[in-house]
TrEMBL record:
Identification of the protein by name: Uncharacterized protein
Length: 196
């Protein structure tokens, strides 16, 4: 299937092209010495990314199988999936939550230090060092995480462009090789008749 933008289960981005597989009951009709199958009663329809399709074909029966997106099953249309959440955004949120937990633990340690009745100079020195860690976690690291997320998105986009270009080049070379190695498609062969 080509065209549009599809969100697929198990995929981190939207797809312009998918592999669609339909399975239906079949009736076999015989006429004029030929068997003709006719689909009757669709059972299931799934979509897969090209990468999921390749995994299905090249690595069957591995683990729990290959992920796919169910579109139709047993007479019921399955609602489309929402657009995938950017993994970089998800990772940034997870980092933010982890940082909050760590800051909370550091503040607990600072409170325990206060209750230890250490000399004021030593207490202040330890707490100042912990304050610097808190500042890194709340101010500096989120900026680094955001910068890394932006960089990662650029790398992913460039990688997709490189892969698309490579695949296009492979297809072009395969087509040229096929054209050079044999008769051209739909080529009409010359007649051997003496009539011309």
């Amino acid at each position: 299937m080509t065209g549009g933008r599809a969100s697929l289960y198990g995929s981190d981005f939207q797809h312009n092209a998918t592999i669609r597989l339909r399975i239906a009951r079949s009736e076999l009709h015989r006429s004029l010495y030929h068997d003709r199958p006719h689909a009757r009663g669709q059972l299931i329809e799934i979509d897969m990314s090209e990468a999921q399709w390749a995994t299905l074909i090249s690595s069957p029966n591995v683990g729990d199988g290959t992920q796919c997106t169910i579109r139709y099953i047993g007479g019921e249309i399955i609602p489309a999936l929402p657009d995938p959440e950017a993994r970089t955004k998800q990772s940034a949120e997870e980092f933010k939550e982890a940082s909050k937990r760590t800051v909370g633990r550091i503040k607990t340690v600072q409170e325990r230090i206060d209750s230890m009745n250490l000399p004021k100079g030593k207490t202040a020195e330890i707490k100042d060092a912990l304050d610097m860690v808190i500042q890194d976690l709340t101010a500096n690291y989120p900026f680094l995480a955001k910068s890394f997320a932006e960089y990662t998105e650029e790398v992913v986009e460039k990688a997709k462009q490189e892969i698309h270009g490579y695949m296009q080049n492979v297809i072009n070379r395969a087509g040229i090789t096929a054209l050079q190695s044999g008769p051209l498609p739909l080529q009409i062969e010359a007649s051997n008749d003496d009539d011309g």
